[in-house]
Amino acid sequence: MSTALHGLGSSLPPPADEPEDARLLLSATTERRGSAVVIHVHGEVDAYTLPTWRRLLSEAVASVTAAGPLVIDTTGLLFMACRSLVVLAEESERCRRRGIRLSVVGTWSVVARVVTVIELDALLPVYASVEDALAESAPSGRPHIAGRCNAVAPVRHRNDTSA
């Protein structure tokens, strides 16, 4: 299996609503695994970086060929606002119309719980690892639950320095 990592959003100027320094707080790299595209996101997704989050997702979706899966790996995020999950669900809906299966990888049990609580689990299957997300077959209608992230992991707060 061949993989290549590339940075997202490094060559284009930021959109008008994107703060110039938001790229310092939120970044992503893309990894190709055959027809699959895996986006590894790093930093924080909050109200300040939300325009950057939208742009990164849009660029990621544009890089996927039809019928290829798109995996958003959130394990590198320190913080993820609920609104960022709604934006992710909106992008997932657009992907589904193009025949692309979007899934999320998150080791935080909170990600899976929040996705369920705000009733986005039909659009955002959450898996424990990239390999689990890629192993799932393309869903028809409601996403599969098998292999989804259900591990309980501690949630670190930004000011928590203990490891």
What does this structure look like?
The chain has 163 residues and is α/β, with parallel strands linked by helices. Helices cover 29% and strands 23% of the residues. It has five helices and six strands, in the order E-H-E-E-H-E-H-E-H-E-H. It has helices at residues 22-25, 50-62, 82-97, 109-117, 130-135, and strands at residues 5-7, 26-33, 36-45, 70-80, 102-105, 126-127. A six-stranded mixed sheet has the order 1-2-3-4-5-6. Helix 2 runs parallel beside helix 3 (82-97). The model is unreliable at 1-6 and 137-163 (pLDDT under 50).
Keywords:
about 160 residues, 5 helices, alpha/beta, about 25% strand, disordered C terminus, disordered N terminus, six-stranded mixed beta sheet
Provide a short characterization of the protein structure.
With 163 residues, the protein is an alpha/beta fold.
Strand line-up across the major sheet: 1-2-3-4-5-6
Mean of all residue-level pLDDT scores: 75
- Tell me the major beta sheet: 6 strands, mixed
The backbone outline, from C-alpha atoms, is globular
Structural class: alpha/beta
Q: How many strand segments?
A: 6
- Spatial extent as radius of gyration: 15 Å
Please trace the helix and strand order, writing H or E for each element.
EHEEHEHEHEH
Ends: how far apart? 33 Å
Question: What's the layout of helices and strands?
Answer:
Blueprint: E1 5-7, H1 22-25, E2 26-33, E3 36-45, H2 50-62, E4 70-80, H3 82-97, E5 102-105, H4 109-117, E6 126-127, H5 130-135
Parallel strand pairs: 3-4, 4-5, 5-6
Antiparallel strand pairs: 1-2, 2-3
